[in-house]
Amino acid sequence: MILLTIGCESKKTADEYYSAAEIERNAKNIKVSLESLEDLIKNYPEHDLAPQAQYLMGDIYMNDLRDFENAILSYQKVVDNFSGSSKVAHAQFMVGYIYAENLNKKDLARTAFQRFINEHSDDVGEYFLESAKQELRSLEDGAPRLEDILQNN
User: How far apart, in Å, are the Cα atoms of 14 and each of 28, 70, 107?
Assistant: First the structure.
């Protein structure tokens, strides 16, 4: 019995998983960071940090790894699995943003931004809502992409 107690590793708390993920990300240990976030979601799917962890995974895939497909999958999991979380609207916006700005998939971007506007216009600030509307306008045929405008200035 003593051997079992000594040999067993105690499960971390949700806060410990999240803190470890942030520390590892800052240390550029991206794989370990993602594993900590996955463990948090697996072990504490109902915890308040679970949607934040899933959102952070999307951010890591997008900004650290430049893996836009997995970023979209991570953000979409926030939308699909954590309704009611404050991260849902932001994740929906990010899905549209990545489709528009990184993958140049206009139809999917339009759908994502329209969903954002339809479902979250009461949940977000005016600036965020106007950003989504501007993204939609920029997706019209012939309109330059935001990324192209910024590169030319």
Answer: 21, 23, 37
